[in-house]
Automatic annotation (TrEMBL):
GO terms for cellular component: plasma membrane. This is Hepatic sodium/bile acid cotransporter. It holds the Pfam family SBF. Belongs to the bile acid:sodium symporter (BASS) (TC 2.A.28) family. The chain crosses the membrane at residues 39-61, 73-97, 103-125, 132-154, 166-191, 203-227, 233-255, 293-315. GO terms for molecular function: bile acid:sodium symporter activity. The lineage of its organism: Eukaryota, Metazoa, Chordata, Craniata, Vertebrata. It is a multi-pass membrane protein. It comes from Bagarius yarrelli. It is found in: Cell membrane. It catalyses: taurocholate(out) + 2 Na(+)(out) = taurocholate(in) + 2 Na(+)(in); cholate(out) + 2 Na(+)(out) = cholate(in) + 2 Na(+)(in); tauroursodeoxycholate(out) + 2 Na(+)(out) = tauroursodeoxycholate(in) + 2 Na(+)(in); tauronorcholate(out) + 2 Na(+)(out) = tauronorcholate(in) + 2 Na(+)(in). The keyword ATP-binding does not apply. As a major transporter of conjugated bile salts from plasma into the hepatocyte, it plays a key role in the enterohepatic circulation of bile salts necessary for the solubilization and absorption of dietary fat and fat-soluble vitamins. It is strictly dependent on the extracellular presence of sodium. It exhibits broad substrate specificity and transports various bile acids, such as taurocholate, cholate, as well as non-bile acid organic compounds, such as estrone sulfate.
Amino acid sequence: MDTTEDYQRQASYGFNNGILENDTVGGFQSPFSPVVDKAINSITIITLFITMISLGCTMEIDKIKQHIARPSGVGIAVLAQFGIMPLTAFCLAKILQLGPIEAITVLICGCCPGGNLSNLFALALRGDMNLSIVMTTCSTVLALGAMPLLLYLYCQGFSGLEKAVPYTGIIIALVMTLVPCGVGIAINHWAPRYSKFIIKAGLSILLIATLAIGVMCCIFLGATVWMVLSPQIMAVAILMPFTGYLLGYTMSVIFKQNGPCRRTIAMETGCQNIQLCSTILKVAFPPEAIGPLFLFPMVYIVFQGAEALLLIFLFKMYQRFKPSNVGETSGQSDKGK
């Protein structure tokens, strides 16, 4: 563990002294060769591009217009996404006394928009799929302005982070999500016969790319990869999605949403766009600065998915022993409400 402790001390020193643009941080040398670093960057960017196209293929313009015409559900969901998750990330970073580099990693994850996994989880929970897709769309678009603003505000609470956020790189990464998402929407609108294939291909490529990056990082990072599995980081990965699910559902109850909408908002709140988070951490930060912490989204997605699957299991058990009301489905319950 000496390597990990030395890295944390050096990286923290570099952040506190504003050293992000140099080749090294606090004397820490990047474990990646230029070829490996470029390979991981390329895989990360290509994966984000493809998965966002597949996300766009799930969106229908007519259904988006319907929710925009009566935006109460979307408004609550966006408030939950950009209110609950960034605040949760900030509070956890403070309570667990994370170092500067760890804190900014957690904040970026917390400020990300909703991810496409939330659509799958909402479907499994018999949620409102139209609302789920529109929520993902709106949070992705609004993230272009909301994410940099939230990072700026919350970074004021950490000494040394006020000027450490690479806003230009983050905005570029956000634009990279909007363009392919728009391409996917166009494909689904004008050539819908290709949508199912693209969605399946996107999920398959995401899985393969995640495994490939994980293997490469384990080989080249060695012992320093265990920094990501420190007790504080593991606690954040466990608590943050669970808090999002719980508070998202609570907020929807307060605003008197129906059952499918409640479950949808809970999933949309707790599920972050992990592909975008990984891209920002890998592309916007030098590897010497972020080190193995760019693997944090992969740790996060494990618990995000595991906790969602647990909730889905409990919901299925509830349905089995106490069937839900007739008509409470993703398509029926939303009509006439």
